Amino acid sequence: MRAHRHPAARVALGLLIPILLLALWQAQAEVGGARALAFVPLASIAAAFAELAASGQLLTDAVTTTSRALTGLVLGASAGVLLGIAMGLFRSVDRLIGPLYHAIRQVPLLGWLPLIGLWVGNGEAAKLLIVGLAAFYPTVLNTYEGIVHAERRNTDVGALFGFSRAQLLRHVLLPGALPLILTGLSQAIAFAWIATIGTELLLGAGAGLGATMSLAQAQQRMDVILVAIAITGLIGFTLNTLFARLRGHLLRWQPAIA
Amino acid sequence: MNVTTLFDTPAAASPPIDGALTIAGLSKDFTVGGRSLPVLDGIDLVVRPGEFVSIVGPSGCGKSTLLRLVAGLDTDFAGEIRLDGKRITGTDLDRGLIFQDHRLFPWMTLEENVGLALLNSSIPKAQRARIVAEHIALLNLAGFEKAYPHQLSGGMAQRGAIARALVTEPKLLLLDEPLGALDALTRIHVQTELQRIWLRQRSTMLMVTHDVEEAVYLSDRVIIMGAKPGRIRRIVDIDLPHPRERSLPQLHRLRDEILAELIQPVPTPGEPENLVRLPVREAM
Lengths: 258, 284
Ligand SMILES: Nc1ncnc2c1ncn2[C@@H]1O[C@H](COP(=O)(O)OP(=O)(O)OP(=O)(O)O)[C@@H](O)[C@H]1O
Ligand SMILES: [Mg+2]
Fold this sequence. Notes:
The structure holds 2 protein chains of 2 kinds. Chain A is an all-alpha fold. Chain A is built from 11 helices and no strands.
């Protein structure tokens, strides 16, 4: 078990199952016939990758989709944190907005698409709105919970030292809520990424990994679809890993769980 | 840097004039399950400026509640609490409270925790870092300035909490079993330290403790409380000069006397002593 602590060993272990799956995939592809249509041989996928990379399309797609996801994430998550704080701090805001928030949250994101299409069209604004909403929901909820459930033991100390409301928020409530806020943000990242690909698939047009998938489907280019899927997974994984690092740094004051 | 300079002010030599606590007709009820539960009943107490008073009493008799009221954390009570004649209506930097658990913020280093107490103090910003460092050193925590509370032992964290409470130099310091979490050896060390600090700072101290020996060693007076509802049963004067020798026979005699008093059943007016009191009866 000790070997798992070694970074190289850990990476090797993490790659084990993907490599096995790829081998299985290749085996299926070599069966030939109808199978080969669904299970494109790895060599063709590699060729499609080389083609997309050389034309620059892959980079454009990756950059477009990532920046779209991050823009929506930043907008949605900041709005979410702000609203979560306001709802957590002020009962009136909670009473005013809470029920509406919980009702709207029940509607699946893509359910809004037709309506949003009518309001703002099918362009960039519509995509950002959906991605932003995806990031917004979990951030509001977690921030609110974190603020509302501030521990009395901590707020008492703030009161003792004569903290104003703003000081209490900055030095006691927000740091106390940070673990939950970060949980909300990590959900927001995952949801925003899924929502970005989803809107690109559905609203097509323009650059983006989802748009490329959608186009490739129409052209029956299974190899291109698979390249786009692989890149989507890779970027999503990278975003998550980077955020996990940031989270670990921000929560370095917590006792290690292990 | 010599840490002792902090308290060697000329004012420390003369008797303190600030920090007189007056409690008159204080009663406090809690509502539990829709019913009113009297927790403190008719507490009258005058603590002189610079006096060290300890409170002992059975668990649940309202000692922590009393300290919270004096600290101003709970303002829902009947009666009056005054500090230097001024009615207490909320928290203020002129009163400090050390809780039974350390309550350092887990997200701040020791240094930041102690420094945060000075956020609203009148001490100039330029001097704060020095004062914080001095207090950390005073509680023997030098070298752990950058440690987070989870990296400190329980006793160290509790000493950190004491440093944080002292740094604002409150006129009245309330201590709720401040040394309860410490091992016997550290406890004796911090008791001595507490006595030294008190003799220098001459702030008024009101300390809750379960350790009668600690109470008689440190205090000018020991208040014995009874439970249900919380009342003052007896006040014992410890008329001995400070600093004291732990081995003083008088201290041991007083300790035994207080312990005997604590063990005695509370005489309930109107009820024969030997009657077994059933819960039902008590509820009526
Ligand atoms: N917030 C609260 N709501 C309801 N009842 C409370 C509350 N806080 C304290 N009490 C009750 O008040 C009584 C006194 O509590 P308190 O904590 O003051 O006791 P204590 O003397 O400090 O006990 P201990 O020595 O065990 O710390 C207890 O019966 C407790 O149940
Ligand atoms: Mg208590």
